[in-house]
Write a structure and sequence with these properties.
By secondary structure, the chain is an alpha/beta fold. Helix content is about 40%, strand content about 20%. The protein is built from 9 helices and 9 strands. Strands 2-5-6-1-7-9-8 form a 7-stranded mixed sheet, sandwiched between helices. Strands 3-4 form a two-stranded antiparallel ribbon. The longest helix is centred in the last third of the chain and has 17 residues, at about 210-225. The chain is globular. It starts with a strand and ends in a 9-residue tail after the last helix. The relative contact order is 0.17.
């Protein structure tokens, strides 16, 4: 199961866009939803009205939808979950979502999130994450973190899954705070590439690489028009470059990652969980 929520956990809408990309790429079909009346304050997460044929109106209520797809070359189905971060009863919300996951036979949950950070748009997107134990974190290349502080529904769900005995993995991507407006295709692409590694599954990226290049080019052009912004971006670049640890990845890890990449492209058959 791959999960993303709109709102606090979704800077630049990068995480929710990743789920939408997977839904479209793999023609996911809706299988379930969580009751919106139990978890949403409609004065905060308001319903939206739409005209149908210019005559009647349709009300769309905020809700969390579950869809299912069968990616080519993958030996299990994927359940995709997307919706606004709930306003109410988070523990009950997580309990209900975990119950639905168990009924669908989900064996692993991957949560996606994006956050604002002091990072340059011209540099590779910073990806962080967490595993369900030290071994899984090391296997997926997630560095340990000492973060303590406020969390969103993805953090609560991750914890609830582990407490329920369901392995859970979190993937977080950093969005440059000075270009937090959506969409953020470069960040979405980086998140999907990490998800591809975690699932050991080839994900079709479609036009995302071209959109990411155009996004970076556009932001660079806008930054160059303002001397203060341009100087700030350069300072972020210098700081980020200074923090790069060139010895972080061993030759063995690079070889293993490349072997996994080739296996996915050749349809070697991953063994990842739903």
């Amino acid at each position: 199961m791959v999960v993303a929520f709109e709102g606090w956990n979704d800077a630049g809408e990068a995480a929710s866009a990743a789920i939408e990309h997977l839904q479209l790429s793999w023609e996911a079909t809706a299988v379930d939803e969580l009751s919106q009346d139990d978890y949403y304050d409609f004065q905060v997460s308001r319903p939206t009205v739409h005209m149908v044929d210019g005559v009647t109106r349709r009300i769309d209520w905020p809700t969390t939808l579950l869809s299912r797809c069968s990616p080519a070359g993958f030996d299990q189905d994927l359940v995709l979950v997307q919706g606004p971060e709930p306003n109410l009863r988070w523990r009950a919300f997580c309990d209900e979502l975990i119950d639905k996951a168990q009924r669908l036979g989900v064996s692993t949950v991957v949560t996606l999130g994006s956050l604002l950070a002091d990072t340059a748009h011209t540099r590779p997107v910073r990806i962080t994450g967490a595993g369900y134990d030290a071994e899984s974190a090391e296997r997926h290349g997630f560095a340990s973190t000492n973060y303590e502080g406020p969390t969103g529904i993805t953090g609560v769900l991750h914890y609830a899954c582990v407490q329920a005995g369901i392995p859970a993995i979190s993937i977080w991507a950093a969005v440059p705070h000075y270009v937090s407006q959506s969409p953020s295709p470069k960040v979405t692409l980086a998140m999907l590439r990490k998800l591809e590694d975690v699932l050991d599954l080839e994900i079709p990226f479609g036009s995302l690489p071209e959109q990411a290049e155009e996004w970076q080019r556009t932001v660079s052009e806008l930054a160059e028009e303002d001397d203060e912004v341009s100087e700030y971006v350069r300072s972020l670049e210098e700081r980020g470059d200074a923090e790069v640890d060139l010895t972080e990845t061993s030759g063995e890890q690079i070889a293993a990652d490349f072997e996994r990449y080739l296996r996915r492209r050749r349809g070697g058959g991953p063994s990842s969980a739903t």
